[in-house]
Amino acid sequence: MSVTLADVARAVGMSASTVSRALSGTEKVNDATREKIRRVAREMGYEPNQVARSLTSGRSDLIGLIVPDIANPFFPPIIKAVQSRASAKGKTVLISDVDEHPADEIQRARVMRKRVDGLIVVSPRTPVESLPELAALQPIVFVNRKVDGAASVIIEASEGIQEAVEHLASLGHKRICYLNGPRRSWSNSQRQAAMRAACAELNLELVEFGPFEPQIQAGVRAADLVHSRDITAVIAYDDMIAMGLMARLTERGMRVGPDISVIGIDDSPMSGMAYPTLTSIHVPGTRAGATAVDLVLDLVDHPEDAPKPVVQLETRLIIRGSTAPAPPER
Hints:
With 330 residues, this protein is α/β, with parallel strands linked by helices. 42% of the residues lie in helices and 18% in strands. Helix 7 links the parallel strand 3 and strand 4.
């Protein structure tokens, strides 16, 4: 026989309503009582009846998470953080990968919203004119894109890019290339603007190529463009493009570091395994995911009066082996 809520209540000598409040995380139960009830419930092997809880509370205890491409190294740290934080709050996460198809995003969100208490949408590709339709599916939190009238967790690229450009300037680089990301990417527009501002401030020449998809093969294609110009340093939209670039430049006889410096963005686990190791701008994906869960659950608990905050997280440069002093001018 499975352990029931009444069994736990008898074991701790409290009412079933008190036990129910403690296990559901309500603030109406003090910390010591809540911890005692949860400990006894764990020891007895109690598992809450989610269907019954949903019927009683009107909630599913589910959070919907939508990402553009689950295979892109930028997203797994965010996904893991969302799952970890949600689990700690007694919630389960449903994940949908739209496979870089912007047209699917709103439809997926509509379907998920019928089943979940709130939505988290990471790096949405939905065109700006359609964002109000997506933002209307409250409670909803956007990660890595600012949306008017909605809660957002913004990963601010300007500080990390400023550090990257200053790093290259200190190494003597005067002509820098930026490899743009997807045309539909809000992040790319922010990174592009930060690149232009930093290069203008330091009086450096900026060459731009792209747009490119966030794929290694895109970096391979970009390498031939970079090779054809007198460029000594490159900052790529993300680590995958940067690693494809490095591989192709090496094939063409260029030494990454001594002949050309390369910087990626994301500081993905692969950046430390590349050869040479990839200098990259660290993006706080773990913090972004955890913060998004806290925001969406606050919106779920206070749907009428909860503010729609915009939380900004900073980026920073991680220096590794792919950047070096500029080669002598030819």
